Amino acid sequence: MCSYFHPLRISIVDTYVRAARRRAVVPSLHKRYLSIIVDRVFCKCAERMVEKLKASASSDTPVNMEAVFSQLTLDVIGLSLFNYNFDSLNTDSPVIDAVYTSLKEAEARSTDILPYWKVKALCKIIPRQIKAENAVTVIRETVEELIAKCKKIVDAEGEMIDSDEYVNDADPSILRFLLASRDEVSSVQLRDDLLSMLVAGHETTGSVLTWTAYLLSKDPSSLLKAQEEVDRVLQGRPPSYEDTKELKFLTRCIIESLRLFIPFSGGPRKCVGDQFALLEAIVALAILLQNMEFELVPDQDITMTTGATIHTTNGLYMRVKQRARDPVFAT
User: In the chain, which ranges are continuous DSSP H helix?
Assistant: First the structure.
């Protein structure tokens, strides 16, 4: 893995540090946290996605669903990690641009034949490298600012974890949990932990959603079966944490896309947030199926490109339309 991505990936630090940081992060992803995040973040962000798709449906404009899923998952990971709303489904910002620039650069470096970007002098004069380094600076500074702000609040309130399933009701983010744990960790290490989760949690889940939607659109009988299951289980309401356990066919569809396209690693480098991502994908697709119909735009050349994850080469364009019923959104 290239040095550019070093501060964004837990997987390339030494084994001792990786194991220690996994032990710190994993307890934050407990059942109560996930239950709250499903309701407050997963459902609300997916509903904003549906509202965005309605506009395209009314104008019969093809939608690049890969881009939409990427926007969705960036919003989800921002709120879940930092209690920070990127709002990328609706707006652009320097931070959003920086995230996408960083991911694009990391992908480019993973396939470059000559690693010229290892020469620091060249990185100061080549426009692509200047843009990439500036993007990383924006992301780092944003995360550092969020950490400092949250730490100030935690310290002022004397907040400490007092139970196995501790969640701060006002701010249930992973950052708040990690700071309240009072774990002895440097601000740089904490920043790098969060950057790793930001990149992995955004890019990987977006890929899972893209390929699952693609597979369903290619198999109308499975798409109908998944939609019927969503209607039967949810009865028009947004999914809860417990509901996701009953969406068994939809879950199998997602797992099948994971089998075919492998976004997650295993073994000692197993993704710490794989269950978080699976849950996020279930909720997002359930709300999509509950509210919208979608089909592939004909005659697309849909091919795979391997970068930070496996994604399409030219996007995944679909036509969408609202289902003929009134959706029930979370209050």
Answer: 15-25, 31-37, 43-59, 65-82, 94-111, 120-123, 127-157, 174-180, 187-218, 220-234, 241-244, 248-261, 274-291
